[in-house]
Design goal:
mainly alpha; Serine Threonine Protein Phosphatase 5, Tetratricopeptide repeat; binds adenosine-5'-diphosphate; binds magnesium ion
Length: 210
C-alpha cells in the first residue's frame, strides 16, 4: 500500500503494470513523436520491452521488494529494447534498484533516492545536460520537485509527475544536442522529445498507482 507504510514491492509491481498498459495505449503517439525527430521506433521499442517485463513479473516472489521488481525491469529492458532508450532506461531502473537496496518499502526520502539514482544513471550513460532535448529534461525537474515535496510520498509522486510532464513540453522549442534528433539542427525545434514524453508517462503512472 502507498500511504504511511510507503511504496512496497506490490505497489512497485502495480506501477510497472500501469506503465506497460499506458505504453501499449500510447505506442503510436510515442512513435509519432520519434518520427518527427528520430527514426519512428520509440513507442514500439518501449512496448516490446514492457510487454516482456509483464511476461516476467510472475517469476517474482510474492514478497519481492521494490528493488527486486526494479531490477527485473532493468534486466528485461536491457535485453529487449534496442536503440538509445533501452540501455538508458535499463540503466535508470538498475540504478534505481540499487538505491532501493533491500528496503521493504520506500518513503518519500527513499523515493527521492531512487529517482535521483535513476536520473544520475541516465546522465552517466548518455552524458546529456539539461536542455539537450532528451529524457533528462523530464527526469531532472521530476527529481527536484519530488525532493522539494517534503515527507509525504504521495505528494512527492504527484510533484514528480507534474514536473516531468512540464519538462517534456519544455523540450519543444529546443535544438537537440544528443541522440538522433541532434542531426536535425534547427529542424528539431517545435517537436517534443519522445524520451522526455515517455519519462513523463512513467512518472504519471507512478502518481496514479494506488
Ligand atoms: P533511438 O534514438 O536509438 O531510435 P529511441 O527512439 O527508443 O532510441 O529513444 C530516443 C530517445 O532517447 C530520445 O527521445 C531521447 O530522449 C533519448 N536519448 C537519446 N540519446 C540520449 C542521451 N545521450 N542521453 C539521454 N537521453 C537520450
Ligand atoms: Mg528512435
Amino acid at each position: 500500500m502507498a500511504g504511511e507504510s510507503g511504496l512496497d514491492g506490490a505497489w512497485t509491481r502495480r506501477w510497472i503494470e500501469t506503465i506497460a498498459a499506458r505504453v501499449a495505449e500510447r505506442k503510436a503517439e510515442l512513435t509519432s513523436l520519434d518520427r518527427a525527430i528520430g527514426d519512428a521506433d520509440h513507442g514500439e521499442n518501449l512496448d516490446r520491452g514492457f510487454q516482456a517485463v509483464l511476461g516476467k513479473l510472475d517469476t517474482l516472489d510474492a514478497g519481492a521488494t521494490p528493488g527486486a521488481v526494479l531490477k527485473l525491469v532493468a534486466t528485461t529492458l536491457i535485453s529487449t529494447v534496442g536503440g538509445a532508450a533501452g540501455p538508458l532506461y535499463g540503466t535508470a531502473f538498475l540504478k534505481g534498484a540499487m538505491a532501493a537496496g533491500d528496503r521493504q518499502s520506500l518513503d518519500a526520502a527513499g523515493l527521492v533516492e531512487v529517482l535521483g539514482a535513476a536520473r544520475d544513471g541516465i546522465v552517466a550513460r548518455g552524458k546529456a545536460e539539461l536542455q539537450d532535448k532528451t529524457m533528462v529534461d523530464a527526469w531532472t525537474p521530476a527529481v527536484d520537485a519530488a525532493s522539494a515535496a517534503g515527507d509525504d510520498v504521495r505528494a512527492a509522486l504527484e510533484a514528480a509527475a507534474t514536473a516531468a510532464a512540464e519538462g517534456a513540453v519544455a523540450t519543444e522549442p529546443l535544438v537537440a544536442h544528443k541522440g538522433r534528433a541532434s542531426y536535425l539542427g534547427e529542424r528539431a525545434i517545435g517537436h517534443r522529445d519522445p524520451g522526455a514524453e515517455s519519462t513523463a508517462l512513467m512518472l504519471r503512472a507512478a502518481a496514479d498507482t494506488q
